[in-house]
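Reviewer 2 asked us to include a model.

Predict the structure of this chain.
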Amino acid sequence: MDFNLTEDDLMIQETAADLAAKKIYPNAEKWDEEGKLPQDILDEMAELGYFGMLLPEKYDGLELSTVTYNCAMEELSAACAGLMITISVHNSLCCEAINKFGSEELKDKYLPNMAAGKIIGAYCLTEPNAGTDAASIKTSAVKKGDKYVLNGTKTFVTNGGLAGVFIVFAVTDPEKGSKGISCFVVPKDTPGIDIGAPEKKMGMKASDTREVSFTDVEIDAMNIIGAEGSGFKTAVILLNNGRIGVAFQAIGIARAAFEEALKYSKERKQFGRSLSSFQAIQFKLADMAAKIDAGRLLAFRAAWMKDNGVNVAKESSMAKLVCSQACNWVVNEAVQIHGGYGYMKEYAVERYFRDARVTEIYEGTTEAQKMVISRQLLRD
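Predicted model (structure tokens):
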């Protein structure tokens, strides 16, 4: 297992870091306050290929490895986690759903436009009464001739208001439990789709999050992704991808908060000395740096294993668990080092503190990750 980045990895990482420093970070606070991303940054990200990072070149994608892709995601997250999750959900959940499990017809129809950013994807799994227990979803898909008719409501849908297509999980056979769940591509312009107002969130405010309802939504039978009844397995595999992404997102937020705290500790004077000269602050910084590096190594391991075709159910959950917990701990310490100023919006650590919290919730809660890890350990 070699964690030395290749020249291509470093080029992608440096390009993303440069973009983040020049275009994203300077505007992140404004986007957070406005609660949305401007169209021009989405257009620029699309032009640079960020909406097709994992897709094969035959569909106009960049065909990056998981490691390379997530090097870029960490940089974007350090600048604006809301923009990062917009791109991450599109790539690792929506594009991958069609690319890995869809028919050639679906791939040809949707992936080139998704790679170009002309169509943004939204992932519709969670429901008002089905979060961690995804197998208990109630959205239904009833087959009628050459159509499926969808009815139900999905909540906390990232990219809900931006999406051109929805990746929707619905029950096709209620008698089979999780084996009766299927996955579908649903175009936004299909009659019967109702997109709710943007959710008012603690953090990740630049990310578009909404409730999406489906009422007698008719879609062609060819819009099913994979075989009927394979949807739950598809969701689990895709969530492994997403958890690696959230691990790198958490590390990006933590690293950014750490860098702000390190800089502030050198500049801020108390009792005639810089904060960084006090051992209490030095020990905080040491612990922060160690937790970030430890988390990043777990995230890289999971990404490397995925690239090498290894089952990463346990390792992606370990990475997500450790990185998200480290992120929340680090940003809390960053705010503490800033003292009263850390509580003020003028300082970026206030935003990082709010953005960090959800990393322990979405793509599977901290408790859900422990369930996955322990089951894998006991199974082994």
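Residues 232-379 form a domain with the Butyryl-CoA Dehydrogenase, subunit A; domain 3 fold (CATH 1.20.140.10). The beta strands are 121-124, 140-144, 147-158, 165-171, 181-187, 193-195, 209-220, 224-225, 269-270, 273-274. We have added this to the supplementary material.
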